[in-house]
């Protein structure tokens, strides 16, 4: 399979950054790209997945078969530059920390390529992914739980429309539990 023949799951043009934002499903052939990103200095402290290629391959295979989540590559003007996990919150460990509705979605993300950092892309990308997740008509809430130390991402989530609920202790990190309500989000960004 050629990575160039994969179709996008969602695509939109963002006028502020003058770029096409797109998301496509991750395939096993993305392993070298994801391995590289997970081993970037700005990613390691928050994802803790700086594995060798073999172990990352095993991790990716497991993640791709996990029915509660879907993995995406985020692209700007057809250039892969970010990794995303969209998950059903009710089937995730996060449901132990709040009363999750069956259609609540969750988001994890990272910008992998260092050359895309500090250019104002995080908010447009997150906004596009949030619109994408709200395409599920029964999803009224999107949750996220960034590492509490990741103040830059927490700031971006807030700017997008996510509201801090509380800090929680997950098995692998102290996290900021944040919610984004469909009606508030659509009112903010229409």
Structure description:
Helix 1 (31-38) crosses helix 3 and helix 4 (122-133) packs across helix 5. This protein has one domain (3-189): Gcn5-related N-acetyltransferase (GNAT) (Aminopeptidase, 3-Layer(aba) Sandwich), CATH 3.40.630. 29% of the residues lie in helices and 31% in strands. With 190 residues, the protein is an alpha+beta fold. The chain contains six helices and eight strands; from the N terminus they run E-E-H-H-H-E-E-E-H-E-H-E-E-H. The protein starts with 9 loop residues before the first strand and ends with a helix. The chain has an eight-stranded mixed β-sheet with strand order 1-2-3-4-5-6-8-7.
**In terms of per-residue confidence, which ranges show pLDDT below 50 for 5 or more consecutive residues?**
none
Helix content: 25-40%
Structural class: alpha+beta
CATH superfamily: Gcn5-related N-acetyltransferase (GNAT)
Query: What's the CATH C level?
Result: Alpha Beta
Q: Strand count, sense and closure of the main sheet?
A: 8 strands, mixed
Amino-to-carboxy terminus distance? 38 Å
H/E element string?
A: EEHHHEEEHEHEEH
Radius of gyration: 16 Å
Task: Quickly count the domains.
Answer: 1
Overall 3D geometry? globular
Kindly report the CATH topology: Aminopeptidase
Q: Give the rounded overall mean pLDDT.
A: 95
Q: Please report the total strand number as a whole number.
A: 8
Q: How many helices in DSSP terms?
A: 6
**Which CATH architecture is right?**
3-Layer(aba) Sandwich
Strand content: 25-35%
Strand order of the largest sheet: 1-2-3-4-5-6-8-7
């Amino acid at each position: 399979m050629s990575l160039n023949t994969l179709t996008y799951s969602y695509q939109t043009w963002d006028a502020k950054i003058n770029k096409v934002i797109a998301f496509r499903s991750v395939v096993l052939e993305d392993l070298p790209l994801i391995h590289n990103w997970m081993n970037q200095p700005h990613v390691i402290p928050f994802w803790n997945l700086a594995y060798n290629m073999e172990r990352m391959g095993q991790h990716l295979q497991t993640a791709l078969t996990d029915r509660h989540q879907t993995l995406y590559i985020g692209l700007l003007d057809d250039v892969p530059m970010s990794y995303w996990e969209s998950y059903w919150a009710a089937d995730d460990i996060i449901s132990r920390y709040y009363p999750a509705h069956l259609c609540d979605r969750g988001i994890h993300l990272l910008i992998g390529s260092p050359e895309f950092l500090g250019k104002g892309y995080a908010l447009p990308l997150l906004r596009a992914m949030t619109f994408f997740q709200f395409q599920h008509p029964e999803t009224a809430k999107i949750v996220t739980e960034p590492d509490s130390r990741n103040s830059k991402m927490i700031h971006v989530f807030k700017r997008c429309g996510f509201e801090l609920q509380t800090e929680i202790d997950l098995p692998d990190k102290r996290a900021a539990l944040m919610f984004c309500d469909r009606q508030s989000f659509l009112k903010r960004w229409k």
